[in-house]
Amino acid sequence: MTLSLGGALSSHPQATSLEALMALADGQLYEAKRAGRHTLRIA
To answer: Domain named GGDEF: which ranges (predicted)?
Structure first.
C-alpha cells in the first residue's frame, strides 16, 4: 500500500474561499502523485 497526500492551510494567501482552499489541496495531491510514492505536499 502507498500513500500520497495533498493539503493546504487556510492561512495560505490564495485561500480566499473554501473552493480556493480545496483547489490548492487538490493541486498539491496531484503534485504528490507526480513526485512518486509515499509523498506529502502542503501549500
So the answer is: 1-43
